[in-house]
Write a structure and sequence with these properties.
The protein has about 300 residues and is α+β, with helices and mostly antiparallel strands. The chain has helices spanning about 1-30, 85-100, 115-120, 125-155, 160-195, 200-220, 235-255, 280-290, 295-305; strands at about 35-45, 45-60, 65-70, 75-80, 85, 225-230, 255-260, 265-280.
Amino acid sequence: MLHIILLILKILGLLILGIFGLIIIAVAIVLLAPAGYMLEVSGKDTLESMQGRLKFHWLLHLLSGELYYEDGRFTWRMRAGWKKFGSGMEKEDDTDEMESVPDSFGKPEKMPEARAEETLEKQPEAQTEEKADSGSAGVKAEHSKTKKKTDIRKTKQKHSLYERLKEFWEKIKYTFQKICDNIRSLVKKKERLTAFIQNEVHKSAFFKVIRELRRFLKTLRPRKADVCAEFGFTDPAVTGYVLALISMIYPFIGEYAEIRPDFERKILRGRVYVKGRIRALHAVSFALRLLLDKNVRTTYRHIRKFKL
């Protein structure tokens, strides 16, 4: 009997170990399997001339998809295992359903002229009397309304000049007091915000996030890239602002990119080709490194409780 119990426990242990092993293998595949992507964009001067394509695949093309932009329209296709989806397929299904539905609605019947004449002849003469009564009642109501309006005007004219000046002075005092209260609240908010930012714990957490974010962005660098763009706006200041934004990410794309700003004319043309891989392991490690840092956790709690 004891031998049978030990055998059953052995089998259960092997099953549990097998399940854990399968879970570990599945998690490893999800974290280590790279997701490939390829992006192509080209355009010349107008948005209508822009064309783009994005392709991605994961787990040996078990999950894949394509997105197209052409002639101002988006089309997409996706495959998950043996199941296929797409914008064109949905349209075809809709058309088939519309064709299969029978036309159960007939044309609206027209009322014959004879029926119209009969209904006109059958109208009672009492309607004319009702109209007359309603007209007299409307005249009385209008007369009472005019009386009320004249009474309201008379009461308004009774207000003296002293009362008007007093009301105006009260309004000025109220607006001035409100402005002063807003200034005081802004000063208090500024002091709280500066104290929150200048805290040493929050500073260290901020620099930690910046370092980890740079490391994570390096892992997202594409294997192949070719960016060539020429842009310009009617206002040279806007061109300068856009160039300043691009300079923030230029250290990551500088070796692949050729960007030419034009401060004299409005222009937008270029092409973009990017191909690379992304692994979920890098995102998970980025999140874990932030969660394990004590300063980041305390700063997150303070941000949730912080109120201006």
